[in-house]
Amino acid sequence: MSLVAYTGAVFHMTDDPAVVGAEASFQYEADGMLVIDDGTVQACGPRTSLATKLPEDTPVVDHSGNLIIPGFIDTHIHFPQLDMIASFGEQLLDWLERYTFPEEAKFADPAHAGECAEFFITELLRNGTTSALVYGTVHKQSVEALFEAAYKRNMRLIAGKALMDRNVPEGVRDTAAGSDKDNRDLIKRWHGKGRIGYAITPRFAPACSDEQLTLAGKLLAEHPDVLMHTHLSENTSEIDWVKKLYPTAKDYLDVYDRFGLLTDRSVFAHCVHLEGEEFQRMAEADAAISYCPTSNLFLGSGLFNLSEAEKYGVTVGLGTDVGAGTSFSILETMNEAYKICHLRGHRLDPFKSFYLATLGGAKALNIADKIGNFEPGKEADFLVIDGSATPLLERRLKNCSGVDETLFVLSMLGDDRAISHTYVAGECVHSRD
Ligand code: GUN
Ligand code: ZN
Which ligand does the CA of 206 lie closest to? Predict the structure, then answer.
């Protein structure tokens, strides 16, 4: 048994504030303690009461003056898009053709994939993101490289090979049978190894043949704890294209549903243009949405309707969607999420933002029994936020009167500079200084 105690202000979400109300949705200890036993949370509470119960020789790591929160969870990100993030001028379909597919073709080279995977994982941790649901490229070796890099750090990371056997250039195209074999090999080799999980990952309906989607649905049914991860209703030209390809489908969501891909283990990125009825079917299926605000603004895709998702009770997490998204930072992602909600006349309160970034994300990925907050028994993924990271942040935080205001200011002014330490299963994997 290896017991370690961490002191500082401690904050975590215990429920969805949109359901239970803000006051009942979190725990905050200004003078707090987080006790970790062999990589899992043993206790979280006021320092003065927990400290007296610890064996005398328990090491104490002092983060006082800083804020300890659960690790961020990024529910949608593309690791092979590092080298074309911030590409100018196009909306989704042209952006894919002009920038994305040529970049992803480079991942046929395992050495390139390996180098990018190392950078990608380091960048996630530097931003306080301890778990993510990640797209690889069409190449099996891209996912192998990513899993190797995450496994080395003991991260709870879920990823999959992108399935794309039509309407894409040859260098990023697979076949239905080949992709099924790759998926099966990757599941066998990686799913459940350490903290690694697999997600069957059709790129999006226009890039996958009926045969490929049929095999994906069959594989999903065969593996009851594997996820399904794809894109849905992101851009109006994309939606028009899907209508042409599937003229008899009720809507875009129905296309995935026809192939058995609308399940309680399905995560749909974007959902910017969903109609009320589609939200309803998402809720009935207990599927999840990844809300990707920096991407939706960058590609000019539109404004996601979070209050509609809340109304229907759909599970939502936050996604950066790098490289259409413009930042790895979940704090910056919260910032843009707030502004999109504001444009829709909805106030995104800071408790909800931190919920989406932690416990909500864990629920979206079906791993809320393992991570997402500091409930005893959960895996100890957490980070330390330094409120004095920039002069402006430090100055503004001194003028805050409650934890809600502190969290809001952190989400508006914070970024990677505010993440002083990141811990994965109780081990420090990033220290800023
Ligand atoms: N739809 C299909 N592929 C992609 C992608 O790589 N990024 C985004 N944002 N949307 C997609
Ligand atoms: Zn995406």
Answer: 1
Q: Name the token pair of 20.
A: 């239970």
Query: Which residues are bridge partners to 44 per DSSP?
Result: 34
Please state which CATH number belongs to domain 4-71+373-431: 2.30.40.10
Residue 407 pLDDT = 98
Six token digits for residue 362: 């864990």
- d(C-alpha 267, C-alpha 229), whole Å: 5
Say if residue 23's pLDDT is above 80: yes
Which of 3.20.20.140, 3.40.50.1000, 3.40.50.720, 3.40.50.2300 would CATH assign to domain 72-364? 3.20.20.140
Q: Whose CA is nearest to atom 3 of ligand 1?
A: 203
Report helix angle 350-357 to 403-413, nearest 10: 60
Distance CA 222, CA 213 (A): 14
**Which ligand 1 atom sits nearest the alpha carbon of residue 295?**
9
> Which ligand is closest in space to the CA of residue 133?
2
1 has a pLDDT exceeding 60? no
* Per-domain residue ranges of the chain: 4-71+373-431, 72-364
DSSP string computed for 343-357: HTT----HHHHHHHH
pTM, two decimal places: 0.98
CA dihedral of 298, 300, 305, 306, whole degrees rounded to 10: 0
Instruction: Summarize pLDDT for 183-199 with one digit per residue, the tens.
Output: 999 999 999 999 999 99
Determine the atom of ligand 1 nearest the C-alpha atom of 292: 9
For residues 112-134, give the mean pLDDT. Answer: 98
